[in-house]
Amino acid sequence: MELSNRIKAVAPSATIAVTAKAKQMMADGIDVVSFGAGEPDLDTPDFIKAAAKAALDAGDTKYTPATAGKLKAAIAEKLKRENGLDYSGEQILVTFGGKHALYNAFQVLLDSGDQVMLPCPCWVSYAEQVKLAGGKCAFLPAGPERAFKIHPDDMLDHGVYSKAMVINNPANPTGVTYTPAELKAIAEAILETDLIVLSDEIYEKLIYGDTEFVSFASLDERLAERTLIFNGLSKTFSMTGWRLGWVAGPANVIKAMATLMSHQTTNPVSFAQAGALAAYLDPAAAPAVEAMRVEFDKRRRHMYQRLCAIEGVTCIEPTGAFYCFPDVSAHYGRSFGGIEVTGSLEFANAALEVAKVALVPGAAFGEDRCVRLAFATSMDQIDKGLDRLAKMLKG
Ligand SMILES: Cc1ncc(COP(=O)(O)O)c(C=O)c1O
User: Fold this and answer.
1) Could you tell me which of 26, 57, 109, 208 has the fewest CB atoms within 10 Å of its CB?
2) pTM of the model
3) Ligand 1 pocket at CB < 6 A
4) pLDDT tens-digit profile of 49-69?
């Protein structure tokens, strides 16, 4: 059957592909250490599960209204309490994960040929989602030599020709976070333009050391009318499988996204929303999130230190999310187990085949010198995987 040109232009998600290959090897009985997955290994807190179970038992099993009133009110309260932002129900939409919210935002914002600026390296789905909406991407280079961050001047050239820009803070795949001052400088440059900002804040709660998180729209009162905030429950509450995210922004965009969703999926799962409500309202949430963050912080420091100790590997210390994104290009040109390593794809292939370690090639994120390792796995697995990787690279 002939496929549409639209889908033929789209690359499958490399992060999901590597995880699937590692899972298949594990299913075949091979002892693989996986640093591939972009999801917490920890379980969803019990009080959230209990709320969803109670909703099921109470017969909360029907279509949900587009308004999803109580959950939106809880999200509005979270935005007020934690981010100092005022949003009403018609400025918030609950979706099937942050990915769905971003996809639909590009669909309602972009016309054919509209350009979106993406600081690069960046999460795999932005560029494909822009393409699927008929848009095109302008990549703003933010490689390791720039500590994976863009600066206000970087936007000047493309800013004139672009309709929108994505800011992902804390960032996947690099694990870096912008300081409030850095973000403010970017915000000031944006206010000189007509750019719409898609601020992906999904890793908001996973920050380490003295890192401070500020929501982009809170930096200046003029930003709210041109910013869409994306967030969700996957990473904060370890709820990746629940598929719940949300977007907050100008009411006309939210209304358009709700219209699109009404023909596309109807609204998110009824009892999952009950779990989300507990996640935002139950006093048990804050200590549960903090316990997860503390655990990730321990793993982060350990993985970072161990990576830095491997010859030919340089790493910028992650301050957010749960990823290290080391530069391994000093090993390009070598051969491991008969695999000639010329870039991050072959490096990841060699790591999987030779060391039985799954990691994600940086090429998938637009930075071929690096590979991504998620530290959302146990300390034992981190040690085991890095022992193997170090041995392979030494060999
Ligand atoms: C930067 C970023 N944004 C959005 C998402 C989407 O997450 P979800 O659809 O599970 O809410 C992810 C997931 O990996 C991500 O890394």
Assistant:
1) 57
2) 0.95
3) 38, 97-99, 123, 168, 172, 200, 202, 232, 234, 240, 245
4) 999 999 999 999 998 876 568
